[in-house]
Amino acid sequence: MKFKIQLEKKEIDMTPMIDMSFLLIAFFMILINFTEADQNERIRLPVSELAIPPDEVPTQTIMLQVLENGNTIYNNAEYDLEGLGRTLEFHKRFLDVIGVKQKTVNVVVRADMRCESGKVQDVIDLCLALRFENFKLRAKQDDR
Predict the structure, then answer these.
(1) pTM, to two decimals
(2) CA dist 87 to 42, 63, 73, 79, 143, Å?
(3) What pLDDT does 14 receive?
(4) Does the CA dihedral 32-34-36-37 come out positive or negative?
(5) I need a surface site. Which of 6, 115, 117, 141 has the fewest CB within 10 A?
(6) Of all residues in the chain, what percent carry a pLDDT higher than 90?
(7) Which residue has the higher pLDDT, 7 or 88?
(8) What is the DSSP string of 79-111?
(9) Which runs of E-coded beta strand occur in the chain?
(10) What distance lies between CA 45 and its chain's CA centroid?
């Protein structure tokens, strides 16, 4: 006696797998480290033998980039010292509202090597007046 078995052809629906793939791509794009985006190409950092890459990325940072003329780039906008003061005051109030203390915020200063040190000190003094205490100065590592 012969049995005849008929197999049905099943098709796999790939739509959920494609949807999940796009969701994962979107998720990982959000998690990408954008620290390189915080750097402006107009800034030429000074070279130092003491420059060491940071071990960990600080959680709360304010990136200030001091140009050769003393103006500062903050959040992709260029400010003079007075305009930077108003903007940082607003940022300070925002931190107060969300419950972040200025002592926990790291102010990262990237100053152009052609900028006068007095102008960099003015930016740091402005931040100190607003009660920001933690500063990180950036320099290019010496390759020698």
Answers:
(1) 0.60
(2) 21, 13, 11, 9, 37
(3) 86
(4) positive
(5) 6
(6) 18
(7) 88
(8) E-HHHHHHHHHHHHHHHHHHT--GGG-EEEEEE
(9) 47-48, 61-66, 72-74, 77-79, 106-111, 134-137, 140-141
(10) 17
